[in-house]
Design goal:
Elements: E1 7-16, E2 19-29, E3 34-39, H1 45-52, E4 60-65, E5 68-69, H2 75-79, E6 82-85, H3 97-106, H4 119-131, H5 147-159, E7 165-169, H6 177-193, E8 198-203, E9 215-220, E10 223-229, H7 230-233, H8 236-243, E11 247-252, E12 255-260
Parallel strand pairs: 3-8, 3-9, 6-7, 7-8
Antiparallel strand pairs: 1-2, 1-4, 4-5, 9-10, 11-12
Helix pairs in contact: 3-4, 3-5, 4-5, 5-6
The protein binds adenosine-5'-triphosphate.
Length: 269
């Protein structure tokens, strides 16, 4: 296994229009780790993800993505090796699921004219479509897909170049309960199928954390409040501080959820 961290962020500050957005943030992500960035609206999660995806440079500090230091590398080239699931991605023409997934190889929103995948690439696309639970929607066109199906198609698309890193920005936002559970089930299958894949997922809802989440960073006002193994970081105390609200964390069947803080009323009979 490659021992270079997949991501290494050291003492990063990011200032935009004179405002500090990230302050002294450090993070190391290794192969096989599944991180969640958790924090309230405006905490800086998406901004940090944009650094990890080589979409932005830090103002101070260093960011290494797949062993390459931002500022010393062709960002566009580097991005092609990162599986970045952009929820706003949308092809303009009504591509099928199969086509959308294959555009992950050309890194384009549209099907590239005169480009054709190899037999191995087609086989990989079919395998990923199956892994994401979309085999029966393989030929369905983008405009006819549900939001959950689109999200899962985009994950399959991001995995086409066989990246070592998958970045997911609020992947379960807007999904109904069934859609969220299907998404979590597929993430679980994915993590078991690709044990070396590392991922970083942004969310503000603990209910949306995949059970395979190994590590968590709590962000508040651009600062890292806590970072480390999920069970050490996701305590009622720390999450309450992160969201500036009394919260009680409940862990059941490998999943996390929250209740309003205060006494545990479930035992009052
Ligand atoms: N281009 C920009 N210029 C100035 N301020 C920005 C810019 N982009 C983001 N911000 C500010 O930086 C802060 C962090 O934004 P960011 O989107 O990273 O937070 P977030 O934790 O992802 O929030 P949310 O959960 O609402 O998506 C916010 O206060 C936002 O207004």
């Amino acid at each position: 296994m490659n021992s270079t961290p997949v991501l290494h962020v050291e003492n990063v500050d990011l200032v935009r229009e004179g405002n500090p957005i990230l302050r002294e943030v450090s993070l190391t992500v290794r192969a096989g780790e599944h991180w969640a960035l958790l924090g309230a609206n405006g905490a800086g999660k998406s901004t940090l993800l944009s650094l990890l995806g080589a979409f932005a440079h830090p103002t101070r500090g260093t960011v290494e993505v797949l062993g390459h230091r931002l500022g010393r590398v062709d960002m566009r080239e580097l991005r092609s090796h990162v599986g970045h699931v952009d929820p706003k991605h949308a092809p303009r023409s009504p591509l099928t699921v199969w086509q959308v997934v294959l555009t992950g190889l050309t890194n384009t929103a549209e099907w590239v004219p005169r480009w054709g995948p190899t037999a191995e690439q087609v086989a990989l696309a079919e395998r990923l479509i199956g892994l994401l639970g979309l085999s029966d929607r393989r030929d369905a066109r983008w405009p006819t897909l549900s939001q959950g199906e689109r999200g899962r198609a985009l994950i399959a698309r991001a995995l086409m170049p066989s990246p070592r890193l998958l970045l997911l920005d609020e992947p379960a936002t807007g999904l109904d309960v069934a859609g969220r559970e299907q998404f979590l089930e597929r993430i679980d299958i994915l993590q078991r199928t690709y044990p070396d894949l590392a991922s970083v997922l942004v969310t503000h809802h603990l209910e949306e954390l995949p059970p395979g989440t190994t590590h968590v960073m709590l962000l508040r006002d651009g600062c890292c409040l806590a970072a480390g193994p999920a069970d050490e970081v996701l305590t009622s105390d720390q999450v309450s501080k992160c969201f500036d609200h009394p919260i009680r964390i409940v862990r059941a069947d490998g999943r996390w959820s929250v209740r309003a803080g205060g006494p545990d009323r479930s035992r009052v009979g």
